[in-house]
Amino acid sequence: MSTLRTLNYDAIVIGGGGAGMRAALQLTESGVKTACITKVFPTRSHTVSAQGGITCAIASADPNDDWRWHMYDTVKGSDYIGDQDAIEYMCSVGPQAVFELDHMGLPFSRTEEGRIYQRPFGGQSKGPDNPTQAARTCAAADRTGHALLHALYQGNLKGGTTFLNEWYAVDLVKNQKGAVVGVIAICIETGETVYVKAKATVMATGGAGRIYQSTTNALINTGDGMGMALRAGFPGQDMEMWQFHPTGIYGAGTLVTEGCRGEGGYLINSEGERFMERYAPNAKDLAGRDVVARSMVLEILEGRGCGPNKDHVLLKLDHLGEETLNLRLPGICELSKTFAHVDPVKAPIPVVPTCHYMMGGIPTTIGGEAITQDANGQDQVVDGLYACGEAACVSVHGANRLGGNSLLDLVVFGRAAGLQIEKALQEGVSHDDASESDIEVALSRLDRLNSSTSGESMAEVKAELQKTMQLYFGVFREGESMQKGLKLLDELGERIKNVHLEDKSQAFNTARIEALELDNLFEVAYATAVSAEERKESRGAHARNDFTERDDDNWLKHSMYFPTEKRVGKRDVNFSPKTVEAFPPKVRSY
Amino acid sequence: MLVSIYRYNPEKDQTPYMQDINIDIPEGKDLMVLDVLHLLKEQDPSVTYRRSCREGVCGSDGLNMNGKNGLACITPLSEVVKRNKLVIRPLPGLPVIRDLVVDMSMFYKQYEKIKPFLINDTPPPAIERLQSPEDREKLDGLYECILCACCSTACPSFWWNPDKFVGPSGLLQAYRFLADSRDTATNERLAELDDPFSVFRCRGIMNCVSVCPKGLNPTKAIGHIRSMLMQRST
Amino acid sequence: MVASVTSLGRNGLYDWLIQRVSAVVLAAYSLFLLGYLVCSPETTYEQWSALFENTLMRIFSLLALISLAAHAWVGLWTISTDYIKPTGLRFLFQAACGIVMFAYVAWGIQVIWGL
Fold first, then answer.
1. A44, A59 in Cβ contact below 8 A?
2. CA distance A203 to chain B (A)
C-alpha cells in the first residue's frame, strides 16, 4: 500500500471526451494545475460519433432566432422535469460557447453569408406561440461530433493541457469527512496503480449505453463515472430516463443522425406509409425522439414493420437527391453502405429505436458541483466532486433530450465546471488528506479482482445483463415485468461480484479493464431498474404500460437513487429561471 | 475459418509469435474483423487490441489484416479473407506494446509537430469568423482524418524516418490548417516544413491513399503543400 | 523543422527542385543523344568527335554531367538517411559519395573539354 505512487494535481478531469476536454481546457487556460485522465486517446472518445450538430440560437439560419425559444423547446422536450435555471443558462450562454468552438477551428459547414450552417432538428420551434419548424442545429456536415472533439483536442494541445492517456480511473478516494480527494487510477500500458490526488475531481466519463444489448454507444460507454459515484455512496438522478434514438441501423445499432430527417428524410412502414403524420401531425418526423421512437415500436407491434421478421421500419432519403446527400450527409451514406449494405441514394435504410443517451446522471449545480441530499431532503454539495456532460444530470434534458442539445451541454457545462473550480480554488480549498484506510477502500475492488482464483466468466454475465436490461427496461416498461427484471438483476449482481479475472498480467491488460467496467455497468443498470420501477407514470422517455399518463401531482420531480439504501427519493425541479418567466407544464404534443 | 493472430505479451514472451486459431463463423452474416476479435477474446481473454466506437470514426482499431492496413470494425470478412484464412497483425512500423496494441507516441508526436490547431492573430469577432462555402469546401477531404495511423504505418518513408518525416496523416492535417481561410500562420507553418525530411521525404508511393479507411488522399495534400512551398520561395 | 547539414540545399524544397530540374536536363540529354543516333545510324568517329567539339554540345554535356552528379548526390543522400542509421557510417558513406561525385565531375570536365 505504502508503495502506491501519488500524483498531485489541483484538479483532475476524468474523461477525455467533449465535456472533459472543455473542462480541462478551461482549467489549464486559467493556470490551474490540471490533468485529464482518459481511458482512450482523447479523439477516440464517444463524442466523436455525434453526427447531426450542436443546437444553439446563433441566429444564422433565422436572424430573429432567440435563445428563449430554444429554452422553451428544451423545457418542453424534457417533459417539464428539466431544471429551468440550468436550461436558461445553457441556451443563453450557448452562442458564446459555439463561437468559441469556431475560433478554436471547428470546421462548421457554412451558409452563403459565411455564417455557420444550421439545420432543422426534432422538437425545434419558434417559441411557445409559434410551432413553425426552426433550423437551429449548427452542423459540420454530419460529422459535427468528430469535428468538435478534434477541435477541442487541438485547443488543448495549443493550451498545453496535461493528458494521462490510456489511464483508467478505478474508484473515488473519499476522506473521513466524505469529501472526494482524488481517484485510484491504472496506467493501462504498464499496469501501475496510482493514487491521483486532487482538490477537485471532475467526472466527465460520458454515458453507459452498453447496459443495453442494442445501443448506438461506443464499446467504451460503460458508465464509469456514474459507477464510481454510486459505489462511493453518492446518488444518481433520473436514472430511469434513457433515450432510445429512433434511427439506429437495424442489426448493427450504429447511429443514423436525426439530421437525416432534418434534411427532409422520413420514416415509412411496411405499407410505405409516412406514419409519423398520424402520431405527430404538426412536427411529423421531427417530433421529440421519445415520441418518434414509441411510434415506431407501435408500428412494429401492430404488424406494420418491414423485413421478413417485420421488426424494423425504413428511413427514406433517396428523394433528397445524390447531391444533397453527398453534401450534407456523406458520413451517413458511408455508414449505411458499410453496416446496412444499403446505398441511401437508391434505397431506404432499415432502422430501429436503439439505446442512445443517458438523461440521468450525477446530479449537479450549474457549476458542475455534485449534489446529494441531507437527512431533510435538502440539496447538499459534495466537497471535491464535480461532473459534466452525459455523466452529469444538471438537469437540462429532463425526461427526454432534444437532438443537438448534448453537444451544447458538453461545451457549456464543461466550461462552467472549469469556471466553478477555478473560483473555488481561488477562494481556497483544503480537504483533509485521505488516510491509508480511505485509500484501501478505494483499492478494494481492484484487490479482489487481482486475487480472484475462480468464478464467473465476464463475457457471459455481461451478455446476460445487457439482455435483461433490453428486455425489461426498454422503450415500453411495465411494473410486473420490471419487478421480474429487478430480481434477475439481483441474481446477476451476486454473480458479478464473483467474476474471475484469468489474466493477471500488467501490460495493457484489457481483460482487467473490462472486468472493472462490468461493475460500473451493473451499478448503472441497477440504478436504472430501481428508479424505473419506482416512477409510476409515463413521462418523456419513460413510458409505462401500467401508468400511461403523466402524473404532475406526484412526479413533476427528479428521482434520486440512493445506492447505499437502494432507495429512490424525489428532488424538486427548478422552475425559477433568472431572466425569463418559467414555462409552466403543459400537455406535450408535436 | 483459420485466424492467424500476432501475439506478444512482454511479461511472458521472449519474442512475438503467430497463433493459429480455428473459429466458427456464424452463417448468413458478414462479420467485421472486429467481431472476430471479440469472438477470439471470449475464448481467450488475454487477446489484446484497442477498440471504441466500432463504426469507423474513432480510429482505435487500425490493424494489418491479410497484409493491408485498415480499421477492423468496418472491414468485413468478405473483403479480406483469402482461402478461408485471416492473418491479423498490428500496424507495421511502430513498437508493439502487446499483441495488436502498438505504441503510437511517434505518430502523435508528428501530429503535434505541425501545430494542429487554428492560429489567428487577429482578435476574434463577437460571432464566428466568417468563411465562404467555397473556402470551407477546401477543408473537405482533410478535416475528416481520424488519426488511426493506417496511412503513416503503411508508408515506407515513415518506416525509415518516423522521427523526422511527418508522415501522411500529419501532413494531411498540416494542409488542413494551411487551407483554412481562418488561419493566419501560413508563413510560419510553411517555414517549419521546408526541410529535407518533414514533407519532402514523401516519394509519392501512395500507400496512404490506398489504405485510408476514410477515403482521404494525403498524397494530394502533400502535393498542395509542395506547391505552396514553391510559391513562397520563387 | 528538421535541420540537416549534409543535404545539398540544406532545404527540402531546394533539394527537391534540384532533383526535378536535373532529371529534366538528363532526360533532354538522353533524348538528344538517342535522337542523334537514330537519325544518323552510321556515325563515324569523325562525326562523333565533331559533335563533341562543338561548344554548344560541350556546354550541354557539362550541364548533363553536373545534373547527373547533383541528381545522384540528392538521391544517394536520401537513401543513406533512409537506410544507414549509425551516424558515423552514414557520414562516411556520404563523404565517399561526395568524393566520387567530385572526381567524376572533374574527370568529366577534362574529357569533355579535351584538357
1. no
2. 19
